[in-house]
Amino acid sequence: MLIPEAYAQESGASTGFDPIFLVMMVAMFAVFWFLVIRPQSKRAKEHQAMLKAIKRGDHVVTNGGIMGRVARIEGDGVLTIEIAPNVRVKCRHSMVSELVTKPEPRAADNDEDADNGKKGG
Fold this sequence. Notes:
CATH architecture of the largest domain: Roll
CATH topology of the largest domain: SH3 type barrels
């Protein structure tokens, strides 16, 4: 009637195994592995090592951006962080994003300050 009958056509190529497709799939997986999965797992291992190294008195930054000093480490994965004198908050151990180290003063900075004092006086 309105819809003409569809007749099956024979394909010119066989639908067998295509080795080029397999090589392309393996290459795509390798690129994905080296660009995405490997660096992410490396960062996760470094973060876990950093979390294990946290001790009382360390200065940390949480995922929410709160900076403070670790006042207490509780056994169930909870840290008590002192963010100001006599102000303490509890935080999950896994929510610490960074362990802050205090930079040591450079010798050049001290020499410049001494030189500036001599020149001005």
